[in-house]
Design goal:
5 strands; three-stranded antiparallel beta sheet; elongated; mainly alpha; 2 domains; Arc Repressor Mutant, subunit A; 6 helices
Length: about 140
């Protein structure tokens, strides 16, 4: 078996494919497409209030939400949020996954976001949309 590595565009590959693979093979290059941008919708005020009040929040999740609230528009990294409760990566992912399930089981539909979460550099960063901030105030999780 012969392995040949090639780096280049699909068009460049097609141009030299017969040389690399021999003439018995037909090569079709399929250009890569950018991943589709998923539309995200942040929770409404009423949805956020329902999410926060349906079941009691764990102290750890409450601490994370309060830290995000206090940060205002400043984006906090996942490392910042892990430090709030002294979590390691697995514990943090478990807590955030549980909160995601809470959102999913409370509000029907996909792509409904409680956090504004973005991948920046080498970590996720988080902030709260205004609807979540207002719901926390009304739920008396924070002082206005």
């Amino acid at each position: 078996m012969k392995l040949t590595m090639f780096e280049g565009t699909p068009e460049e590959y097609v141009a030299i494919a017969n040389t690399l693979m021999g003439t018995a093979n037909t090569v079709v290059a399929i250009p890569q497409q950018s991943p589709a941008v998923v539309a995200r919708r942040f929770v409404t005020l009423e949805e956020a209030k329902e999410i926060l009040s349906r079941l009691e929040l764990s102290d750890n999740m409450n601490n994370v939400l309060v830290a995000l609230y206090k940060a205002g528009s400043k984006r906090l990294t996942s490392d910042d949020l892990k430090k709030v409760n002294g979590h390691n990566s697995d514990e943090f992912r478990g807590m955030m996954g549980a909160f995601g399930r809470r959102v999913g089981y409370t509000i029907e539909g996909n792509d409904i976001w409680f956090f504004d979460q973005k991948w920046e550099g080498d970590a996720y960063t988080y902030t709260l949309p205004e609807s979540a901030r207002k719901a926390m105030e009304e739920h008396r999780m924070v002082k206005q």
